[in-house]
Amino acid sequence: MIDAIDIIKSFGEKVVLKGITFSFERGKTNLIIGQSGSGKTVLMKCLIGLLDVDKGKVIYDDRVFSEMNENDKKKIRQELGMMFQGGALFDSMNVEQNVMFPLNMFTNQIMEEKLERVNFCLKRVNLENVNKLYPSEISGGMKKRVAIARAISMNPRYLFCDEPNSGLDPRTSIVIDNLISEITKEYQITTIINTHDMNSVMEIGDKIAFIYKGNLGWQGSNKDILHVHNQELESFVYATELMRLLKQQNS
Fold it and tell me: How large a percentage of the chain has pLDDT more than 90?
């Protein structure tokens, strides 16, 4: 579990996060949603320590991450898996090398052990016999699955996904969503997903934080979201769904 407690973050005179309190639960897909500029990306960066909070606390399973020194934070970061927007694979590395990258950086495993872990992770995301292919040789959906394999290569306790479905067609997006959800539950990971995708919200939104102008505008599950009388949330859901339908018509 990761607890954000009364998180405040400013840039100069602009207050971006205005006291966010939310618990991201273990074994669940925890989604952060909101319009562009709402503060959701800043919140994720505060959670992983890319930005220091001005006030409040970020707590990883009773460990106060936001008050640790850099050496202690580094130990926590070794428990994190990251899936960046677009996948962020290294173009100069093949699939095997991309997935192995965290193992090379953070472990002392011998090559045989690393290869065994790489192959296990690739098999878990339904990718086999692609080890020697390069990112330019595989599809967008496959790149996302390689990115997931890399994110879980260190057997993380916490998984962060930034817009995992960006650039994907609706069918492939559902595959990626379901894969993230399955892995989350199978390994009891605390998964946090930053997304604009209402399909993701409705498919796998176990717990949702709606950020509105730096405040926690609403929280709940995908079972609740369509039955809530919240003007800002309703506007976001409607606008997001409308954009999705327009993109489908134009594709």
Answer: 54
